[in-house]
Amino acid sequence: MMLPGFPDAAPLAGLAGGVLIGLAAALMLLGMGRIAGISGIAARATGLSDGSLPRSSAWAFVIGLPAGALLVMLANGGLPANFASPWILALAGLVVGIGTRLGSGCTSGHGVCGMSRFSQRSIVATLTFMVTGFATVAVMNALGLVVLP
Predict the structure, then answer these.
(1) What is the pTM for the complete model shown?
(2) Is residue 4 in a domain?
(3) pLDDT tens digits for 44-78?
(4) Pick from 46, 89, 96, 75: nearest CA to 67
(5) Structural domains counted in the chain
(6) Spatial distance between the Cα atoms of 48 and 40, rounded to a whole number of angstroms
(7) How far is the CA of 86 from the CAs of 24, 46, 90, 92, in angstroms?
(8) SS3 string of 40-78?
C-alpha cells in the first residue's frame, strides 16, 4: 500500500508494529503487573534502580528488543540502514538517558502505557516529547541540516 506523498511509508507494517507493542505492554501489565517502560526496565537490568521486576526478567526484555528486530530483519531478507557515527550514537544515547531520568520515564512508558491509563503526568510528558521532536526537526530543517538521507 502506498500513501500519496509518502512513497516509503509502510502503513501496514506500522500498524502491525503498533499492535505488537500494545500487546507486549498489555501482556507485561497483566502477566507481571509491571509497566513496559524501556528506560525503567533497562535501569533495573543494569542495577541503576531497584524494583520488583527480577533482574533476569529485565535482561530478557532488554535483550529481546534487538533480538526481535534482528529476527524481523532476517525474515525480510535484510533491511537497508543508515546510522550516524558511533560517537554521535553514544552521545545521543547519553542525552536520551538523562532525559528519561529527568522525565521519570521514556516514550514507551509514558506514551504507550501511561497515556492508555490516562495518567496526567504521562500526557504532559508525551506532549513534551512530541513538541520537542517537532521543534528539533523544524530547527534542523531551517538550518539546512539533513534529518534523513
Answers:
(1) 0.67
(2) no
(3) 888 888 878 889 988 998 898 889 888 888 887 87
(4) 75
(5) 1
(6) 9
(7) 30, 21, 6, 10
(8) HHHHHHHCCCCCCCCHHHHHHHHHHHHHHHHHHHHHCCC
Tell me the three state secondary structure of residue 37.
coil
Domain assignment of residue 19, yes or no = yes
**Assigned C-alpha cell, 64:** 529481546
C-alpha cell at 79: 533491511
For residue 148, tell me if it sits in a domain. Answer: no
Residue 81 three-state SS? coil
Alpha helices in the chain, H assignment, sequence order = 11-32, 38-46, 55-75, 86-102, 107, 115-116, 120-142
Give the side-chain half-sphere CA count within 13 A for 29: 15
Q: Cβ atoms within 10 A of the Cβ of 115, count?
A: 15
Overall size of the chain counted in residues: 149
Q: Which amino acid belongs to residue 35?
A: I
- 77 grid coordinates: 531478507
Domain that holds residue 28: 11-142
